[in-house]
Structures are given as C-alpha cells and as structure tokens.
Amino acid sequence: MIEGNVQAVSTKPFEGQRPGTSGLRKRTRVFMQPGYLENFVQSVFNAVLTDAAEGFRSETLVVGGDGRFYNREATQTIIRMAAANGFRSVLVGRGGILSTPAVSAVIRRRKAFGGLVLSASHNPGGIDEDFGIKYNIRNGGPAPEAVTERIYAETQTLKTYLTLEHKNIDLETTGTTRLGNCEVVVIDSLEDYTAVMEELFDFEKLRALFAGNFRMLFDAMSAVTGPYARHILEEKLGAPRGTVLNGEPLPDFGGHHPDPNLVHAYELVMAMCSGGAPDFGAACDGDGDRNLILGRDFFVTPGDSLAVIAEHASAAIPGYRAGLAGVARSMPTSMAVDRVAESLGIRSYETPTGWKFFGSLMDAGLVTLCGEESFGTGSSHVREKDGLWAVLCWLSILAATGKSVEEIVRDHWRRFGRSYYQRQDYEGLDAAKATEMIGILRANLSLLEGSPLGDGVVARADDFSYTDPVDGSETTQQGLRLLLADGSRVVLRLSGTGTSGATLRVYIERFLNDGGASDIGEVLGPLTRAVRELLALRERFGTDVPTVIT
Ligand code: VG1
Ligand code: CO
Question: N or C, which end of the chain has less CB nearby within 10 Å?
C-alpha cells in the first residue's frame, strides 16, 4: 500500500500526444497547460506497467533533463506521480539535470526500470519555445515504436492520473527523501557518466595530450554538457580553464538554438577559422547527445566522423580494443561507414531515422558503433547517441595518430574515397502542403525510375521500409529514396521533431574515389538543382533556398 495521500485526478485526453522521432515535443506553453504533462506521464506508466514484474513496487525510475525552462517544475510533477504510481525509488539528477546519454548510463548502471528525459534536444528553450519528454526503457535506450504506440493509445483514452500531495523536493542537494513508500534520491548528475567514460577511454593518455601544446575549444551552447565537459575535459584531463565555452546551462540557452552545426555554433566556428585557432573544436546540443567536430578551419561531416571513428576505434580507444561487432547508420546518413565496415569484414546495418532503432541491434550484440547524419554518434556503452563520447573518441584518435583533424580525414578519403554529402533543410513550411507534396511524389515514384535527374539517371525510387532483424518489427514510410545509377542518392523526408509547421529534409550524397579533392558545391550542384525543380519548391512554398545546410 502506498502511504500518504494518493489522489486520482480526473482528466480528459489531449490530442496530438503521439511521440515523434524522439519523444513528445511541443511548445512549452502547451506542456504547461494543466494536466498536459501529467496525462502523458500517466500514459507512459500505464503503457509500461505490464513490463514490470510486480507492478512498480520493486522498480526504479530515472528522471533528468537538459535544464531548459520548465525542467524543474516538470521534474517535481513527475516525482509526485511516480511515487503515487508505486515506484520503489526515483533517481533524479541534481538540479533536475542529466544529459540524455547520462540518463542512459544511470538506467543501465543502476539497473533501473526506465527513465524520463526532459528535453526538446536541439530545439530552443524558453516559455515561448519548446519542451519535450521522452521515455527510455530498461536497456537505457529510447522506447521502441511498439512502446511509443502503446503510450499514444493510452493518451487517447486516459481518464485519471495519480499524484500525491507533497511539498517540492530539494533538488539542489544530493540525498534521499521519502514520499510515502517511495525513496526519492537526488544523485550527482556527473558520476555515472564520468565512470563510463573512464572505463572506455585512456584518461592518462588524454591528460598527456593536454599537458603538451594541444589545445581545444568545446562549446556547450549554454546547455546541459557544460558541467560534464568542465568536469571531464578541464578537471579530469587537465585542459586549461576556458576550454569549455558557454558552460553554464541556461533555461533559454542564452536565446540560442542549442544545435551544434555550422549555422548555430557560429561562435565556435569563428574561433576555429581565426588565426591562432586551437587544434580541435567541438560542440554538443541541448541534451548532450549530438556533436560537432571541427579541425583548424576544417569541418568534419557527421558521416565522415562516424566512418573515421569506426576506422580507428580498435587501435586508438581501449574500450574497443577487441574490435567492433558491426556498425549501423540511419538510412539518410552517408554510406562512408559502410566502406569501413567492409574493409573490417563486419556488417553495416541501415535503419530508419531515430536512435530508437539501434537499441535492438546493440542489445543483440550485432553492432558496436552507430551514427546519424544529424550530428549523432554513439556506441553500445549506452543506448543513446553521446556527444561528449564522440569528442573523447576524436581526442583519442588525435592522441594516437599525432595528426591533425584535417590530416586524419584526408587520409580517410585517400584510403576509402569520399561521400560528398549535404543535408538541406527547408524549415517552417506549410505542413499540409508539405505532406501533400511528399504524398504526390510517393505515388509517382515508379515513374521516376529510368528518368534523368541532374547529371545522373534514377535507377530505383522507393519509400524506405525496415524490418528489425532481431525482433521482426516493421516500420514503413521512412523516407523517399532516389537511387541513381552511379551510386549517388537523394533522400527526402519530413522531420518528426519539429513543433510548428513542417521541415523538409533533402539529403544528397555522391561518392567519388578522388581522394576528396573536389569542390562539394560542384559535385552536388546538379542534383541539388534538379531536386528543387522536381519538387517545385518555389511554386509550392515561394522559396527554394534551404534555411539550414549541414
Ligand atoms: C532529427 C534527426 C534525427 C535525430 C532526431 C533526434 O529527427 O534527423 O536523426 O535522431 O532529430 O535527435 P527529424 O525527425 O527531425 O529529422 V535529438 O538530438 O533532437 O534528440
Ligand atoms: Co539531442
């Protein structure tokens, strides 16, 4: 029996609580409506109750977020609801703070039942910006689609949620508070994550790197990785103070997009292009699962970064000394890593967009490394993509090879050839028109086969669907693919993480075994222009200029 004063509060379903690519993301004010967050959280609990052996009585829930506006209030609400729903314990990051990979690490190391991550990731934060919540399962990874669909079904019929009356928990100090039968433990947000990094990487060697002339800049973008990066890079590895820029997590991320790409991480990009730039630059997103890798005046695309890490992991990183079981990438991600996998004699799996599809492959021991074109890289050490981990991978490769970032990538291109690759985003489109456009193209895909596109010919056109090789689950409509006769590709899909309007993502890739010497604009130009015409972007939306190119 739960002590205290559990209350069943009557509620009515809210529309639109279906989790997208990565959890439920909405405007913050939408989340702040009475009952909105509560309904979703109760729906999660209802949906996963049958996965718990004896109800939640012997189970632990992890809660943490990226510190954005409403993080603390939401954390207090979830603590009360978890206690009322009978959880044995709730582990909360101090200050309500846990990066996404840290949530995954805590769930795994402390054998928790699952966790709730409060974040809208790279989306801006603030009362007029975005908030989000995502449920992670026992393996530490995002709930697979079968679970998110169950959650969504619950949101549509929910009548009551459970909570109890209790004053707010002090989130600022580590320690334990009892709420009825539930132990609420405020934990050090950095401890579990740092321990995992120390298991994987040779901190001695990295300390020696910083003890020499090597210098880096890390931009935490006023988001969650600030404390993690300061602790690991500056305190543990001895990088000079000031290595971490924007290291204080702010509820509105200083008014910026915490999205580590060439557009939004401009402060870092400028520093890396200036005279006297350091050897290495990196940044992470709002919740710490994405990464940007820069050399001196040199940008490493996420697809190349994944391929380079795969190429060097076993030689440069102790945690991967035994080699890689396999690799996986989301379908729109460049095929660079496939070539490395081939040379290593391991398999490369192609999954739909979103980290939830990698979990079953990692659990089954089929893959060690995974990556997405959207600045996400990770491995089986947790079940989320992991920004700082990628930074430590690069530091390890730099230390092991003694080469510069640019030399490492150019060596890679010489050995494997280069996937010239770009993602062109058109944000803020009219959602109905965008959906209609994709629908028309989907219906006419077969007509495109055999017809010219830019300077090539479409050999095959399809709508990507995926059957999970481990559990057999099927996922359809994951992106339109135009596969050209020369191996080039164009992929088109609509974003599943936005909160207003639609974002069209156009992914363009062309492989050349030219040592990487060509100009990317020239290589991709003809296909870029042809796709704009094919989609009649100007006619439909009044513009054919992408808002962000990565
Ligand atoms: C985007 C990316 C996808 C990534 C997802 C969550 O999704 O394309 O690769 O997994 O964001 O990343 P979409 O549906 O908008 O294309 V994160 O760091 O925002 O949790
Ligand atoms: Co993120």
Answer: N
Give the C-alpha separation, 84 to 165, whole Å. Answer: 9
**Nearest CA, atom 8, ligand 1:** 374
SS3 89: strand
In order, the DSSP letters of 376-416 are EEEETTSSS--HHHHHHHHHHHHHHH---HHHHHHHHHHHH
Residue 151: pLDDT over 50: yes
The pLDDT tens digits for 160-189 are 999 999 999 999 999 999 998 999 999 999
379 Cα: distance to centroid of ligand 1 (angstroms): 17
| Edge-to-edge strands, sheet with 347-351 | 347-351, 326-330, 369-372, 376-379
The closest residue, in CA terms, to atom 17 on ligand 1 is 121
Structure confidence at residue 496 (pLDDT):
83
CA torsion sign, 261 to 266 to 267 to 269? positive
Predicted confidence at residue 478, as pLDDT, reads 94
Exactly one of 22, 99, 119, 121 is catalytic; which is it?
A: 121
Residue whose CB lies within 8 A of the most ligand 1 atoms, among 374, 494, 499, 504, for a mutation test: 374
Structure tokens belonging to residue 474: 């099927």
Task: Give the atom of ligand 1 at the shortest distance from the alpha carbon of 20.
Answer: 14
Lowest mean pLDDT among 258-262, 333-337, 494-498, 535-539: 494-498
What pTM was estimated for this model as a whole? Answer: 0.94
380-414: buried (b, 16+ CB within 10 Å) or exposed (e) per residue? bbbbbbbbbbbbbbbbbbbbbeeeebeebbbbbbe
Instruction: Compute, in angstroms, the gap from residue 386 CA to the centroid of ligand 2.
Output: 9
Q: Is 495 annotated as catalytic?
A: no
Give the number of whichever ligand sits closest to the CA of residue 66: 2
User: How crowded is the C-beta side of 257, counted as CA atoms within 13 Å?
Assistant: 10
Q: Give the number of other CB atoms < 10 A from CB of residue 428.
A: 14
Does the Cβ of 353 fall within 6 Å of ligand 1?
A: yes
> What is the 3-class SS of 469-492, one letter each residue?
CCCCCEECCCCEEEEECCCCEEEE
266 CB contacts (<8 Å, ≥6 apart)?
Answer: none
Task: Check whether 13 has a pLDDT greater than 70.
Answer: yes
Q: Does ligand 1 lie within 6 Å of residue 354's CB atom?
A: yes
Taking all residues of the chain, what is their mean pLDDT, rounded to a whole number? 95
Q: Is-contact 146 360, C-beta < 8 A?
A: no
Rounded CA gap, 90 and 79, in Å? Answer: 7
